[in-house]
């Protein structure tokens, strides 16, 4: 068992797991969440290889977007996700 | 029912008008259904038809809200040319299901309208927005 903090609350995990597995267990789609681990934002393609360990501090925020457009949702959402990733990626430089 | 002081309504409308013609967005923090703090957020999409919040800002606000002993009560954004009702995109992208989704319509910029909704699994329920006079 390991103890971590998620969004400020203590959680106990059965064992160290990858971030991808943790999201899967919580039924959270990886594409709609931004994850910060110990004050570092984790890129989505690193979720499978990022292992959660004892005392890790996690923050999950869901994608927040929308708007009054009549554009088809899937087109808009794909654009939004890409923009969101681009912004995060630029912030790391 | 969402309790939103006049002071906060004015701040939200002011931001929405200043961001026009782009959509504006923000987070409402408080306790229960009562808003105690408004976070004016950045629309990184900078579009008159859509908004996206900056995930880094969201993380910062989430931690601050928690540190203040508050919770996220709602998310708001403006519709620059349509009614204050959730669009198909608003419904599909409502990943926070336990908060009020507040929409400010600037269809008539001289008479902005604020409406609040709960959106759960594609179903919309309009909620009353109650004003309180700010007795400062």
Summarize the structure.
The complex is a heterodimer of chains A (93) and B (136). With 93 residues, chain A is α+β, with helices and mostly antiparallel strands.
* Terminal residue distance of chain A: 36 Å
How many domains in all of chain A?
Answer: 1
- The main sheet of chain A orders its strands as 2-1-5-3-4
Order of helices and strands of chain A: EEHEEEEH
Shape of chain A: elongated
How many beta-strand runs of chain A? 6
What radius of gyration of chain A results from the CA coordinates? 15 Å
Radius of gyration of chain B over all CA atoms, rounded: 14 Å
List keywords for this structure.
heterodimer, A: 93 residues, alpha+beta, Ubiquitin-like (UB roll), five-stranded mixed sheet, 6 strands, 29% helix, B: 136 residues, alpha/beta, six-stranded mixed sheet, two-stranded parallel sheet, 36% strand, globular
Question: Care to describe what's here?
Answer:
The complex is a heterodimer of chains A (about 90) and B (about 140). By secondary structure, chain A is of the alpha+beta class. Chain A has a single domain (about 1-90), classed as Beta-grasp domain (Ubiquitin-like (UB roll)), CATH 3.10.20. Chain A has two helices and six strands. Chain A has helices spanning about 20-25, 75-90; strands at about 1-5, 10-15, 35, 40, 55-60, 65. Chain A has a five-stranded mixed beta sheet with strand order 2-1-5-3-4, with no helix packed on it. The N and C termini of chain A lie far apart (about 35 Å). With about 140 residues, chain B is of the alpha/beta class. Helices cover about 25% and strands about 35% of the residues of chain B. Chain B has three helices and nine strands. The radius of gyration of chain B is 14 Å and the shape is globular. The two termini of chain B are about 25 Å apart. The model of chain B has no long low-confidence stretch (mean pLDDT about 95). The interface of A and B includes residues 41, 65, 67, 80 and 83 of A. β6 (about 65) of chain A pairs antiparallel with β4 of chain B.
